[in-house]
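To fix ideas, we close by showing one paired sequence and structure record:
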Amino acid sequence: MRFDTSQHMKLGQQMKLAPRMIQSMEILQMPLAELEERIEQELESNPTLELDDGSNADNATDERAEGDVAEANAGDGADDFERLSDFEADNPEYAENSYDGPSERPERVEHTPTYSESRMAGERDGKMDAMASAPARSASLADQLLAQWGLVDVDDRLRPLGEQIIQFLDDDGYLRTELSEIADRAPAGMADDVTEADWELALRAVQLLLEPTGVAARDARECLLLQLDAADEGSDDEDAPRLGAAAALDAARTLIESHFDDLMNNRLPRIASKSGLSLDEINAGIETMRRLSLAPARRLVVEREAAITPDAVVEYDDEHDRYVAYLTDTRASQLRINREYALMAKDRSVEQKDRNFIRTNLSNAQWLLDAVGQRRSTMLRVINVVVEEQREYFDFGPEALRPLPMKTVADRMGVHVATVSRAVADKWIQTPRGVVPLRGFFSQGLATESGEDVTANEVRGALKDIIDNEDKARPFSDEALVKQLKERGYDIARRTVAKYRGQLDMPSARMRKQF
């Protein structure tokens, strides 16, 4: 084998994303909460950036100073999005996967801002209001169980073992870690003569003495059995009216202890042949099990959904019979360059190193102002197009939502579809119909047999209606669902039916069958 070394010349062009272009993309994609956090960081680190306090003094000087900065930094940030659109058009591999579709009206729509500065006059600090209204953080699962454990009557030898076990419970209340591993990871001060039997006793005490029943179970089967053990067999079982409560509990216990796998796969006839139980008894046991929980600890710790701060508000204008939009980014609209620092950057009496420092920060501040301003303009233009295209939604509700590909909006705005995708990512708007995600107004749409475009939500609604009204003894397969939808005018593939069924959290035909 022979190796040769040679030199070659190759001429080519390659375009790379500049750091500021990447940052401009990030600013556009940020939801309001992240943007405000970013602005707060810049205000703390950049002395040349400040918030407008509302005073009108020296406005002419401020505008002249900011104009000097913008002139000195021309091209640094103002046209980042324009260059980005050109880049994405030539390099589609950098663009996000966005909705596509035919452009119905490719003409360019000029944007007229509807946001009024008078809305901001005298407005309270939204961040402080949100903090004041936020609910207190609830105690963790471990803290609540440890508080209970401290009050139960248990042998002193087992108390530290129970505390150790509680620390290893997951969010659902299960103990997924082996007791031997818990023992190995126990604090050094714990007695060395603790036996495996002691750990088992401590676990049993945690399971039997703490609420809610079912915590510290090692699997789903044990969790359900613990709850059955605690059930009052003398109470009336309204969920199993065809049998006595005790019989229903016994049937449920048999299903869990001996036929759990078949039960999870809805193989009820097989269970009946193996167990000797009738289908009525099996169904009564299943109804009893429906009252049990597979995640008992969730009763103690309620997960609160993160508060949603709308990025924009859409309101109805009675006088002109139209919907108008304005942004809620108060702090972003109040950003400005500090006048004194802008003048110092041109003052030759200031030392050169200080001027260089000020100019660097002025450049960063001006770039942020440009990026934020471009974000505001792009978002308003997108929202105004959405409001125009989805007028029927705002008038009549979600059932009137029309298919709206992102490419249609991008063509009307004269930007790349990835710019629209970033502008709507993780954004929410407050409308007369409630607070809704901006991305929810976009969908590719499906064509009916008559040629009319419908939204995926409409097809999912039809699918849900078919499944809800099917014969549960003979549920429709996915192939049968395709035929049922086609009879209603929706011609979609079986895999699409399976996807929509999963989105609706509806199981397969075998799992929906009732015996």
Q: What stands out?
A: The two ends are 73 Å apart (CA to CA). The CA atoms of residues 10 and 82 lie 30 Å apart. The longest helix spans residues 352-389. The domain at 446-512 is CATH 1.10.10.60 (Arc Repressor Mutant, subunit A).
